[in-house]
Structure formats: structure tokens, C-alpha cells
């Protein structure tokens, strides 16, 4: 869920054209500012979010495997729906199906811990939500040894499949080679929980995850996992994604600005032990 660079860019021009129908951009902005639902929602009277509830503290099942979906993104989606005066619906989707789900109009937006990568912005619009960057998690003894990204060279590293984190490890191969070291041995897992188990079970020396999720993982595995601080820069942003050129895009962006301005997002961040300073809505 930094979630990945790997995309299914199979949406046809016809699908993207469908995404453009609806109200004008001006009317979308006006609707968002007035607290009324914009035109162009997949289902009238409902804000539908594609979400993969496997990424705490941003989105996850309250009881671990079912029931209510909670987390910063989930609650922000509820707040957005309330702002517009509509119901909210979560379209549960596997991570690698989030972007295809958006483009095929299964949902109005993706609010699910996705980095605003150049690759994604080629096929979708996005409004920034918070600052993010990759982090390394390992056993406390090993975490102390990570000072630079190339300290991962030659090690077994776990990451979520189709994620930008996994792509970051793959990109390290060239840097490792230049330093006369072996490339990291990357194993990709469908779920972030599986990357944690890989480290705990000794199958991986470390895992790479977003700073937001990594802090939560450390809290949940006190004494077993530790974040190696300062290895990677906070160099990107999580965003809420809408279809490319869709009239809904400015309405979503304006609504989140309103939720930031009135303190709603700050309250939600604090609820999930996130530093409100990482919020970046503009």
C-alpha cells in the first residue's frame, strides 16, 4: 500500500472517456465547497472507495480479518462522504487491482496508501494527503546496522508485491553493483502481514515498508521488530486517486482541503497515533 509502482495500464481510451462524463469541473468544485455531492459519482448518493484493508494504520479490519474497516484512510473516506452528504461504500480490492478498479468505474476513488508516483500520475489524477517515504524494519540487533540503503545489498529483503517499496529494492541492484556488492534478494508477498512474518521467521533479514506502516508494525511487534531510522528520505506523498481528467478530481481535492482546514483530518490522524505534521493537503 506505498504502494506500488507496478500498474495495470490496460484501461482503454473508451474507459477513460467514460470517466470524463458528468458535471463540469467548475460545478464539481462548487459542490465540494458547498458540502453537496458532486455529479459524476459511480452510484448516486454514494461515495465508493476502492480499498485494500491490509495496511494498518491506514486501512485494516477492526477484528483482523473482517467486520468494520478502520484506519486513517477509511475514516477520511467516511468524513468525505459526510462532507458531501452521501453514504460511503468500501469496494474491497486486492492491492494490484486498485488502479484497474478505479479505471473500470468500480469506485470513485482510491484512498489507500498509494504513493503519487510518476507512473501512477500518467494514468490517474491524485490529490496529496500526507508525506511518506520508505523505511527498513528488522530485528533490533540488525536494525542498528542499517545506515544507508546499500546496507541492504546482498541481504534477503521482503516487500509487498507490486509496491513502490519492492521497486525501490529492485532499483538498488545498480547501486550495489557500483559498490562492488551483490544485489538484494527480494521476495514479494501479497500482504504486508506476510512481510512481517518473513522477518520474524528468519526468511528475510529485513522488510521495506512506508514510514507510516513501519511505525505501526514496530508498535505491534515490540522487542521483535525495530525501524532503522533515517535510512531513506521522506521523498513522496500519499494521495487520493481519481480517474484521469475526471470532473470528480477537483471536487475530491477541494473536499479534502476543507477537511484539513476544519481540523477533521488532524483529529483522524491523532486517533491512529499518526503525527498530524505529516499531513500535506494542498
TrEMBL record:
<dbReference type="InterPro" id="IPR001638">
    <property type="entry name" value="Solute-binding_3/MltF_N"/>
</dbReference>
<keyword id="KW-0732">Signal</keyword>
<feature type="domain" description="Solute-binding protein family 3/N-terminal">
    <location>
        <begin position="46"/>
        <end position="276"/>
    </location>
</feature>
<dbReference type="Pfam" id="PF00497">
    <property type="entry name" value="SBP_bac_3"/>
</dbReference>
<protein>
    <submittedName>
        <fullName>ABC transporter substrate-binding protein</fullName>
    </submittedName>
</protein>
<feature type="signal peptide">
    <location>
        <begin position="1"/>
        <end position="25"/>
    </location>
</feature>
